[in-house]
Amino acid sequence: MAAVDLVAEFPQPAGATRWAEVMARFAAGLGSQGRRVVLVTSGGTKVPLEARPVRFLDNFSSGRRGATSAEAFLAAGYGVLFLYRARSAFPFAHRFPPQTWLSALRPSGRAPPGLLSLEAEEKSLPGFAAALRSYQEAEAAGTFLAVEFTTLADYLHLLQAAAQALNPLGSSAMFYLAAAVSDFYVPASEMPKHKIQSSGGPLQITMKMVPKMLSPLVKDWAPQAFIISFKLETDPAIVIDRARNALEIYRHQVVVANILDSRRSFVVIITKDSETELLLSEEEVEKGIEIEEKLVDDLQSRHTAFIRDKN
């Protein structure tokens, strides 16, 4: 889909131009350091059903895979541009729900005007201090930038801007497209102007298929980048075939195949020439190891080989 069609079909969200500039500066700064940068997309898109939306089409994605992967990429030395659904899982914070913070954090001592000093019980929030330090170190180093989206239109515009920001980095850029993007939408020109009334009886909605944005991303937006997409299915019998079909259509370097019920402990890395299974053992699960740690470690090695081949 050409850029003009994107704007016509999905109106540009407020602030998109500003975020495009912020992302471009972020990528340029890290590129000047010779650092690899990964765009991690995370969480699910929300599709409004009305022009002044009250009702939406949504999906189950929590963003946990994207958030955990972002942490692993930062630990591996990448700069991370984190494009995520508002209020979905966030790197370093997703293990600590707000309700645990409320019970474990309390005011401590006297602080300067306008500031609040807090102390935390480590036994109530194990790992919290380490997570906080990791986040603050990444923020201070300028290696982490988080950009929110909510709707499908937000996501598509910000995805294009992010890809264009990382394009000058060539093969040093990676795209880790873990966001769950809706396959269906209601065009803005066809949306009811006001809230759909239940008094009108049973609701029938005709939705269009979302144009496949990943193919132009490869061909036009960042043709030299190393690109990973995901294929999630509920039927193990079809997931590998579907992943290989996606690999052929989108011409990405990698498609990660996973099954809904086992996605946190088992994935298959699909490339043109190989299939690599990654599995967490029971012992690794008990130790708190995440499948994303293995996945990012594998992908980092493949990215290194990709850069070497390009150069």
UniProtKB/TrEMBL annotation:
Its EC number is 6.3.2.51. It is an enzyme of class 6 (ligase). It comes from the Eukaryota. One of its GO terms (molecular function) is phosphopantothenate--cysteine ligase activity. InterPro entries: CoaB-like_sf (IPR035929), DNA/pantothenate-metab_flavo_C (IPR007085). Gene3D superfamilies: CoaB-like (3.40.50.10300). Pfam families: DFP. It catalyses: (R)-4'-phosphopantothenate + L-cysteine + CTP = N-[(R)-4-phosphopantothenoyl]-L-cysteine + CMP + diphosphate + H(+); (R)-4'-phosphopantothenate + L-cysteine + ATP = N-[(R)-4-phosphopantothenoyl]-L-cysteine + AMP + diphosphate + H(+). One of its GO terms (cellular component) is nucleus. SUPFAM superfamilies: CoaB-like (SSF102645). One of its GO terms (biological process) is coenzyme A biosynthetic process. Residues 36-82, 166-267 form the DNA/pantothenate metabolism flavoprotein C-terminal domain. Belongs to the PPC synthetase family. Catalyzes the second step in the biosynthesis of coenzyme A from vitamin B5, where cysteine is conjugated to 4'-phosphopantothenate to form 4-phosphopantothenoylcysteine. Has a preference for ATP over CTP as a cosubstrate. This is Phosphopantothenate--cysteine ligase.
